[in-house]
């Protein structure tokens, strides 16, 4: 699981013309490719639509919510990225703040993901993992896994 995170960080944080140096993986450590200093992730997660289609609306909200934290983190984990959309505005903004972006390894419930579509984590689980809360009513969980990273997501081949 850890290598998914590292690969996502190293590969997806780079934007054309980016100021941030790529992060290199050596064994189980991360390094800045320009300074060769060890890189430690100090990150946050944020679940908000930051695609180019929505970013003009969400940028001010994100800046308002994170204003007291800017400068205290170097990595932003993006929960859901729709592969049919672009994220150039968000990536450029994070680059200007000196923040790397790490795309989550779990897919969203989009048809694009095929058989992996329902291998996601639901945010509305009940305490026992068998029920999902929807509009205050408990429903039996039928299409999503109880595991954090289900076997289907780590399937090899």
From TrEMBL:
Look up the domain of life of the source. Answer: Eukaryota
Q: PANTHER family recorded for this chain?
A: 1,3-BETA-GLUCANOSYLTRANSFERASE GAS1
Is Nucleotide-binding given among the entry's keywords? no
Which GO BP annotation is one of this protein's? cell wall (1->3)-beta-D-glucan biosynthetic process
Q: What gene is this protein translated from?
A: Aste57867_556
- Give an example GO cellular component term for this record: plasma membrane
Please state what the protein is called: Aste57867_556 protein
InterPro entries attached here? Glucanosyltransferase
> Tell me, what's a Pfam family for it?
Glyco_hydro_72
Q: Which organism is it from?
A: Aphanomyces stellatus
Instruction: Write out the GO MF terms.
Output: 1,3-beta-glucanosyltransferase activity
């Amino acid at each position: 699981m850890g290598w998914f995170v590292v690969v996502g960080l190293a590969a997806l944080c780079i934007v054309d013309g980016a100021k941030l140096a790529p992060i290199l993986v050596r064994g189980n450590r991360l390094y800045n490719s320009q300074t060769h200093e060890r890189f430690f992730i100090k990150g946050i997660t944020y679940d908000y639509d930051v695609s180019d289609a929505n970013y003009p609306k969400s940028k001010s909200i994100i800046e308002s919510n994170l204003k007291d934290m800017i400068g205290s983190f170097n990595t932003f984990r993006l929960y859901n990225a729709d592969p049919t959309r672009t994220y150039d505005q968000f990536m450029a903004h994070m680059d200007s703040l000196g923040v790397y972006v790490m795309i989550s390894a779990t897919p969203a419930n989009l048809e694009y993901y095929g058989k992996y579509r329902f291998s996601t984590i639901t945010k509305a689980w009940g305490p026992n993992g068998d029920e999902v809360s929807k509009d205050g009513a408990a429903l039996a969980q039928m299409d999503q896994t109880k595991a954090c990273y289900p076997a289907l997501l780590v399937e090899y081949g």
